[in-house]
Amino acid sequence: MRRLIRVPSSALRATFVLAPSLFALAGCPPVDDKDDTGGDSGGVDCTTEARASLQLSVVDVDGQPITGASATFSKGESMETDCEVGYGSDNLLICGWEVSGDLNVTVQAAGFGGVSDTWTVTSDECHVLTVQDTVILETIATEAR
To answer: What pLDDT shows up at residue 143?
Structure first.
């Protein structure tokens, strides 16, 4: 049986800390220096860190973390990419860095039914707006022999 239960991000207890040295972004708009003073004269001032697109906390039906879960994601017809295990949390999966749009994600763990769903990630002028969610996996029933 496959079942996905979404929990609003406000109920998500896991937090993610991005290591500051992970990535530098080439796609951030430059600081607006129209007055040639070396400072910002009112334009967008973006940071150079990479932001996670989707953070999924994986738990069982009792709310207990499931360690060892894995996931893949794709955007549109693109090739599937493995999600990463989050830093400091064995049940947190990070799907994409600075990838916006509809992400098709499949989550699975040994002994549990896998699930697939789509999350929409938006962005502002500089970065994606990280989506945080919880995926609840059900245990696969085994038959007595």
So the answer is: 64
